[in-house]
Design brief:
Elements lengths: L10 H8 L4 H9 L4 E4 L6 H15 L5 E5 L4 H9 L3 E4 L5 H5 L6 E4 L11 H18 L4 E7 L6 E2 L15 H21 L3 E6 L2 E2 L5 H10 L4 E2 L4 E2 L2 E2 H10 L9 E5 L5 E2 H12 L5 E2 L5 E2 L5 H7 L6 H13 L19
Parallel strand pairs: 1-2, 1-4, 2-3, 4-5, 5-7, 7-12, 8-11, 9-14
Antiparallel strand pairs: 6-15, 10-13
Helix pairs in contact: 2-3, 3-9, 6-7, 8-10, 8-12, 10-12
């Protein structure tokens, strides 16, 4: 990102930054033809991802319709989309009839997922994460598909390993992670049997100033709560960077479905990040637990070769988060639960 600001003033500035397309993305939008359909577009990432696609398309000077599909769309978010040239569509995607009524699109981005609240809602979790991909592949067998997955499909690995790579064995922990592996297997099955080009984006963790591991840590520090060190290490990536990489993955889909880790280049230590946040917040920090020798970590060298490297370093994210929360900025109210080691979300 050029001209990285010292602070993010407000939500308007934040969403502009998260949706700002890179020159490489604009060039890609000139090369690809056809409309784009975003399924599950009204969660944490979807709004700025669809807006980035719209902005990059407009900057490329090509005609394209951008559809944002969700089961629940607030009136405010519907207006937000329409003001930006994004077409919102309300749809219960588990209903075959409603799914069939969605417009055709050459390019499909699959964002639908369930993670938080998984425990106690296991059947719904599997329906969203593993059954719906099959319905989508049947309906959109003629589209190129970029689908979000997660780094949770990997096991916990030694910190000294540098993180899991795409060729490493998958060993998900807990029902959420297992259902995400199910999502990958279903997309891969249809990729092979219907010749659908697919990219699987194993993301962890997209970060902005209203959501992310650093937000979780800073909120605990501000509340005077101890920081659990057991899950002692983590990866993050600025959401604006992950948005651009996700969209550019459209040119790197494959048959069979191609997994791509998307995360930042650094392995961050919880203790050090919390200490730095506490310094910026001018608050003490307390600890609980002992660092385990392993953590959920990914290595994204394939993504950097194909999609470019992230432009925002973790140090900038940390300063932005501390400043945002110190000023009382709003959050999404969705803890990452990154410290969970038994897979129960």
């Amino acid at each position: 990102m050029n001209d990285v600001p010292e602070r993010i003033a407000d939500v308007e500035m934040l969403e502009e930054m998260l949706s700002r397309p890179s020159p490489e993305l604009v060039e890609m939008m000139r090369r690809v033809e056809g409309d784009m359909l975003f399924l599950g577009a009204f969660g944490k990432i979807g709004p700025t991802l669809t807006w980035m696609a719209r902005r990059a398309t407009d900057a490329a000077g090509v005609p394209r319709r951008i559809y944002a599909v969700g089961r629940n769309i607030s009136p405010d978010r519907q207006v937000w989309c329409q003001q930006r040239g994004i077409e919102p569509i309300r749809c219960d995607m588990l209903d075959r009839r409603q799914l069939a009524e969605l417009p055709d699109a050459a390019h499909l981005f699959y964002l639908a997922a369930m993670k938080f609240g998984t425990t106690g809602q296991e059947p719904f979790t599997w329906a969203i994460n593993a059954y719906l991909p099959g319905l989508v592949c049947e309906r959109f067998a003629g589209s190129r598909i970029v689908a979000y997955s997660t780094g949770n499909v990997y096991p916990l690995v030694s910190v000294s390993s540098g993180g899991s790579q795409e060729e490493d064995p998958l060993d998900p922990i807990g029902e959420y992670a297992m259902s995400c592996l199910g999502r990958e297997r279903i997309f891969t099955y249809f990729s092979l049997t219907r010749n659908i080009p697919v990219a699987l984006i194993r993301l962890n963790y997209a970060h902005e100033v209203r959501y992310g591991i650093m937000v979780d840590l800073a909120q605990k520090i501000l509340a005077g709560q101890p920081i659990d060190l057991t899950m002692g290490y983590f990866n993050v990536i600025w959401q604006g960077d992950s948005n651009a990489m996700t969209l550019r993955a459209l040119e790197h889909v494959g048959v069979p479905a191609r997994p791509i880790n998307v995360t930042g280049p650094e392995i961050l230590r919880v203790r050090e990040v919390a200490q730095e946040l506490a310094r910026h917040l001018d608050r003490p920090v307390e600890w609980t637990g002992i660092e385990a020798p392993n953590a959920l970590l990914s290595r994204a060298s394939r993504a950097y070769e194909l999609l470019g490297r992230p432009t925002v370093p973790s140090a900038h994210i940390l300063r932005w988060v501390a400043d945002w929360l110190r000023r009382g900025g709003p959050t999404l109210g969705k803890p990452t639960k990154f410290q969970v080691r038994n897979g129960r979300f």
